[in-house]
Amino acid sequence: MKIQLRFFASVREALGVTQESVTVPESVITVGDVRAFLQQRGGVWAEALADKRSLRMAYDQEMTDAAAPIKDGGEVAFFPPVTGG
Amino acid sequence: MAIRVQTEDFDVSKEVAELRANSPQVGAVVTFIGTVRDMNDGSSVAEMELEHYPGMTEKALQNIVDQAKARWPLFDALVIHRVGPLLPLEQIVLVAVTSAHRGEAFAACEFIIDYLKTDAPFWKKEQTPDGARWVDARSTDDTALAKWAPVPNKDLDQLK
Q: What is the 3-state secondary structure (H, E, C) of chain A?
């Protein structure tokens, strides 16, 4: 399926990517699967999205967790813990 | 209930006047203003930049306000959060709530800013003498949420 990826703050800077449209294999069905799929790219992707990094994630613009299922056309975002207010 | 994400500054007097205009049922107004400090984690801060997730930001803030409305009997609520470059002394965020009595207004205002600190997609980047750095989330922001465990109805009555 095809999904939209979005990155923010220090994650965006580390990857050098603000957003990207990507086609993922059939085995990728959750937000957590997307993260693992992107880690496979190696380099800055493996580093910035490493499991040890405490990242927050959103699906279709709602905060969620790694277990959340994804659908075709969905938007998945990865970012650091938020610091507003 | 209004949510605004904007670069422009706000005038709290004007916003409160509009919030409670023609609302004689309002007996309590509580406001919180967050401002830019010139020191953070031992370094002096010359300027800060607020980044956000357009689309999700407004939804997240609305969701937080809806939760506050469900927990307390509020008449109205307003959240204004600025984004872009800000200098020390500038205002960052306004949370304002109106209700009949002070108990729910104080509680709801604090609830909204506590949840904004952990759930609203904003990120601060500071300029310091040693260069730019992203502000780290504070563990105290997460522990602040613990005070909002559900309250039995009889305790809510005692807040009025």
A: CEEEEEECHHHHHHHCCCEEEEECCCCCCEHHHHHHHHHCCCHHHHHHCCCCCCCEEEECCEEECCCCECCCCCEEEEECCCCCC
